[in-house]
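Chapter summary example: a protein plus biotin.
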Amino acid sequence: MAETLVTIVRRLADGEYCSGEALAELCGISRAAVWKQIERLRQHYGLPVEASQGKGYRLPYPLELLDEDRILAELSPQGRFLLQHLELLFEVDSTNRYLTDARAQGAQGGQACFAEFQSAGRGRRGRPWVSPLAGNIYLSLLWEYPLGPARLSGLSLVAGLAVARTLRRFGARRVGLKWPNDVLWQGRKLAGLLLEVQGEQEGPSQLVLGLGVNLCIPAEAGRDIDQPWVDLREVLGEAEPIPRNLLCAKLLDELLIALAHFEVEGLGPQLEEWQHYDVYFGRPITLRLGDREVAGVHRGIDPSGALILQDQAGEQRLYHGGEVSLRG
Ligand code: BTN
């Protein structure tokens, strides 16, 4: 991202008006050039900058920009020990793609990266992940396991649980999980995880785990999201500012610890807690598997992370993939 744009974003982050003249002076450009940059922030970066005659430009809410020192300071001793390297990027196509490339160039496990903006954020099933500038959390983590990829099937559930648990601690009380790892609030998506695994059949495996959390989605950007969504600002009530760096640190901490524990104990010890968060447990669901659909009652998950579906004849089957939706 061009330095001028970063300077403007930093100057407007307090949510107060700043005149075009002051921005022009700060950046060493003309007022017309400031206006062009503001348009770029709106159109390309999805930042809802407001303009008022005589007052200048402002954001409708203050932004807490990512701050490496603050994130590191809030990690637990265990989290700090597990984290090998932390990177903060202003702009990237996708943090998952970034760490996948880093891995190909020899990066070791334990690396994490946050970004303020993703131009090509990736969601599950090839969907885009709408990633406007500076309001949300886009995090990826690189991890290595001695196990083969097939043994990591419960990992995405463990990761989802770590996220849901952290968000509840931040006051999002009715947050729940939809198998395998969608984080929902009243049926609307609040956060999503994308796990990309490579490896040898017998191990080792390399994992890139990506987490996106909606903290503050501007209305314009929200129109591009193709499923019901919610942001943490709405969940918590708009009056309370979200301590973004603190939340980044706690999510990173929980995920680092969850990834490390998984190698030792798998999903088993967390099954009960997962069920407690499971929003569709005991309810009639449809599981979409490519072009095929199976209907049944959701009877929970097994220790490998598979979904247990009971059909009309009362028989229970395990499913390792597919997309769940509620019936009726
Ligand atoms: C989903 O579809 O539910 C998964 C969304 C995962 C989005 C995150 S944002 C950080 C990381 N980088 C990406 O490109 N995707 C993941």
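Key point: The pocket of biotin is lined by residues 94-96, 118, 121-124, 127, 129, 138-140, 182, 192-194, 210-212 (CB under 6 Å).
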